[in-house]
Amino acid sequence: MKIIEIENVSKSFSNRKVLDGVSLAIEKGTICGLIGRNGSGKTVLMKCICGFLTPDSGNIRIRGREQNRKQNVSGNMGIIIESPGFLEYESAYRNLLYLARLRGLIGKKEVKEAIEQVGLCPKDRKKVKKYSMGMRQRLGIAQAIMEKSDILLLDEPMNGLDEQGVADMRKLFLSLKENGVTILLASHNSEDINFLCDSVYRIDGGKIKCEDE
Question: What pLDDT shows up at residue 104?
Answer without folding.
Answer: 87
